[in-house]
Amino acid sequence: MGATVAIAGASGYAGGELLRLLLAHPELGVGTVTAHSKAGDRLIAHHPQLIELADRTLEPTTAEALAGHDVVILALPHGTSAQVAAQLPDDVLVLDCGADHRLTDAAAWQRFYGTEHAGSWPYGLPELVRKDGGKQRDALPGAKRIAVPGCNVTAVTLALAPGLAAGVVAPDDIVAVLACGTSGAGKSLKPHLLASEIMGAASPYAVGGVHRHIPEIQQNLQLASGGAPVTLSFTPTLVPMSRGILATVTAKLSGDAGSVRAAWADAYADEPFVHLLPEGQWPTTAAVLGANTAHVQVTVDEAAGRVVAIAAIDNLAKGTAGAAIQSANLALGLPETLGLPTTGVAP
Amino acid sequence: MGATVAIAGASGYAGGELLRLLLAHPELGVGTVTAHSKAGDRLIAHHPQLIELADRTLEPTTAEALAGHDVVILALPHGTSAQVAAQLPDDVLVLDCGADHRLTDAAAWQRFYGTEHAGSWPYGLPELVRKDGGKQRDALPGAKRIAVPGCNVTAVTLALAPGLAAGVVAPDDIVAVLACGTSGAGKSLKPHLLASEIMGAASPYAVGGVHRHIPEIQQNLQLASGGAPVTLSFTPTLVPMSRGILATVTAKLSGDAGSVRAAWADAYADEPFVHLLPEGQWPTTAAVLGANTAHVQVTVDEAAGRVVAIAAIDNLAKGTAGAAIQSANLALGLPETLGLPTTGVAP
Amino acid sequence: MGATVAIAGASGYAGGELLRLLLAHPELGVGTVTAHSKAGDRLIAHHPQLIELADRTLEPTTAEALAGHDVVILALPHGTSAQVAAQLPDDVLVLDCGADHRLTDAAAWQRFYGTEHAGSWPYGLPELVRKDGGKQRDALPGAKRIAVPGCNVTAVTLALAPGLAAGVVAPDDIVAVLACGTSGAGKSLKPHLLASEIMGAASPYAVGGVHRHIPEIQQNLQLASGGAPVTLSFTPTLVPMSRGILATVTAKLSGDAGSVRAAWADAYADEPFVHLLPEGQWPTTAAVLGANTAHVQVTVDEAAGRVVAIAAIDNLAKGTAGAAIQSANLALGLPETLGLPTTGVAP
Amino acid sequence: MGATVAIAGASGYAGGELLRLLLAHPELGVGTVTAHSKAGDRLIAHHPQLIELADRTLEPTTAEALAGHDVVILALPHGTSAQVAAQLPDDVLVLDCGADHRLTDAAAWQRFYGTEHAGSWPYGLPELVRKDGGKQRDALPGAKRIAVPGCNVTAVTLALAPGLAAGVVAPDDIVAVLACGTSGAGKSLKPHLLASEIMGAASPYAVGGVHRHIPEIQQNLQLASGGAPVTLSFTPTLVPMSRGILATVTAKLSGDAGSVRAAWADAYADEPFVHLLPEGQWPTTAAVLGANTAHVQVTVDEAAGRVVAIAAIDNLAKGTAGAAIQSANLALGLPETLGLPTTGVAP
Q1: What CATH code is carried by the domain that includes residue A220?
Q2: Keyword Oxidoreductase: yes or no (chains A, B, C, D) (predicted)?
Q3: ipTM for this model
């Protein structure tokens, strides 16, 4: 066991998933686990699945508690993670699962979050393709600070970026509608997240351009398109499942319909975690449950003049905790795939 | 009790919902119930909720079995309903819940169904607004043949038609993505409809312009827009719920953003079954479960240049069986709302 | 419209269900709606399904606000309802959906609730059979105070009481295990009721003889058995559905196995809301969703020496709100079935 | 990679789960995959989660196709597995996930299955405790034929066996009620397994002593109790989840209430896959999803004179595929826990 990892915010869903994955990782060990209001509780009271950590207690989230580890992963509310991160030593690898360090544009941060911008860190989506043929993976080896992408953002980006990079879809009128599992909203005690409200119901939220993931998606897709501004209509909907995001993303066809599939096939041919499915087979979130895997499919609707690209991920795995560990592997010089499950728990 | 209603295809989900609603209708009584492969079975074996009809047996679907009723409602696979309808007397009110008589364009029928067009009947969506300010309701009093709309079609049409009729959205680049309950797919024994496959999963189907509801939506929206051609990208997704459709429909803003809400408010101000929700409150399928009600909300995303309109219906109620009875009420000269529930069974 | 009904505690699930049913009741109208912490909110913000009451605001729960109605229904936490009830005039019909007035045994109340006993009211389960052949229905006409049964209690009682009354099962070693929908736990913001925790999970609660519904079940079954003491092992489990209770109840066979079915058939032969299903057909909660209906089935397991009786109800309908209105109908001299749905919203 | 494993019946749910687990196993590799009616299909068409096996095709289930492997695992319908097994060489390790070789009592087999008994194999439930203090684990090293337990059987057995072995509960009046996920019923196309029928519904099946798992449970519990005959009332219920079994098992207290917990604690103290939870924490199926883990809790209801023991497992993992691999590890002399996940995918 090479390195130890401290988890800040370990009582939440992202924290639990990080611990699940770390328990199976051959080179990363579980270090201190911290929480805010739940400090002092036994970890297993919040995560009954973590039976191997039944003797662990949640410590308060402080720089002292997090000290002495090779890696610190922050699974904290936005705003909080920047404060904690600022107190950690420069030579520790810090990964922030919150939003604080994702955006490069301070004005966009200010517009969507209304607080001061904490600055941007290398972005932990290795498979993000750039117009120039490179990928975001290049930025991660040796990094000491990494911003883990938002889960909705990962789904939309992986669905559409290859087409923008290849120039076969236009960046100026993208429409994304997502079916999202409830764990993406976390464990906060809000009435609309009660089981009685969710089961049997589909409902939208943050409609009309107000969702905070929008500037992050635009930032990624602009990178893919080589700088062209990205216009995006984005609507997430809650559906009755705990995990999973199915992102249906359409953009105007701007090239040869016959070149569309090749753009996606080329982009993801060698990726261990992102797969273009065989023709005619469409993604389902069940197939990626618990796995650090994205399934993608694409087709052209010639009558509508649009390409439809669909991605399925597990919001807690490839959408958060798996992405963090994948990036940590890269930063630490470990094999990128080490310790990460690729097969979904289906059915 | 004024009239009796025979149901052809009573073993399926639409048939069961028709019977549930008819049992509570003060002027329409349940007549003969028929089926194809299930003929001879007790009705309650297929619909345990219909305890009041526990002594009924399913008869074979023949013109003879359906004779002698004031109203016949066909809940049959497409292709079959036209054959049965052709054998029924002209003076009986016949409502077809299948697709056979919905499309006015024989070429569109041929393109999507590949069989000969059976002709078109008056279309049973009373709340469909036309450019000229009228509504589809006008076509129904006294009608003897009525084509009941498709469930996905109803959701998309009710979501967007007011904006097209008022000219505040453009008809040329509409994108609709739907979260659909499984009962819309009927009781057919297909592996992807097994509970183990559906629970915990969101998955798309009929992606890329191939879904048979597309020409019907275009027909409706073209009526709303006053004849302008309609371009539509349409993607339904299955989500883990038995009933319900949540349609997220976006179209390019083509007028004054400040006029958008009024277009919807005016269109539905006096409607008993279609409601524009209070500002800020978004539809959820749970709120219309079992009710002949559509909930609609709309907003403008100025940054994206798009209007987002969302509708929630119960696919079996307002989407099929409720629509049939609402149209029957109109055709028979009964109060339009007679016997139809308006309050959803939530949570 | 004869009488008006005030609802105290209208923001919760029982309150919403009472309003849904009252909106469809031909003789009872919706009066004042009150709440505690939600007073001042618009009703529709908590119950989007109650679109017909979109202009209603929740008033504070006070005796003044509840005055001037023919009927007051209390959907309040235990302890609170007795306090409010004490302030209401004697000539108003008051129905308490809480536990405060259900138990006749003050010691049992003290043991399970730890507070002073408020006294007992006539018990609103009309179909409860007594050893002497009578039913609880007899106690309700003209009553001015009625205790509405607990939902789990209703399911277990209706499942087993006929066998005890007929003497074909023994009262001394009854085992009941229930699969319960989450709405029975109300809208309280508890972590274990979050959708993410419930979906995909079955979990027990209040195991080992500590659930507060136990003395109420014993009271009912003792009435059925003619006074013999009742020993009961009772385990409820939460399963991923919003509504519904499936109670599996077994008791030792104490008579002739051949007489078992007749005991249930006789008890429920003329009941409008409780049905012994045809042989071989077992209850499912889906078939009673939204209906004031209980489905029951029974069989003998000779090898185990036990009778197995199973009942399905909707906890909010027959389990709470429907039961209240059924009892109110009886108390007011209206037809018992008036305004109450009997067909479940399935699938 | 030491050994290769062929899977017969790889298109079903048990087959898919076996392959998921084998892909993560360091010493067992995936060999031939076979099917009956699905032979010739691509494996990924049936198991989209098995993206790493996307190039595999299902071969027909024949002895020839299964030859040349170190291990063969049969995931076939009962009756079929015995036929296939009979054609396999003696020196190959064969594990049967079906029922054919579980029962030692030919008469019990005949009574519940109605066909000729194929004989019994060493039984693959290592944690089954015997009255004499030993465990079933002892029978497995070096075995060449292993009968994998039924999933419901595993849950009930692990819940109650420690109490019988310790003599603190009586074997003569056991009652087990289970909440079961749908994948236990397999992929067979039956109407009651359609998603529309299952979601929102709890329903019992095989009620009244007719379920085929009953003699297998009795056989196990009799072993635990040291030969005393076991009387069992067993009722499984289907609830809306894909995976998971929650078994609520009660038996009469026959010893000192104060000794109860110790019986379970002692039995499972050193088990890697079966855990008695901390006092007050009850099992939930979510916590064992995808894991080869059983969570157990027990309490005494003194008023009812019964012990209540509850176990949660994943029917496909610890209930079937995980159990097979755990037993294979033991038979092959590998570490028992090799390649088996212990942390559930929660929430």
Answers
A1: 3.30.360.10
A2: yes
A3: 0.97
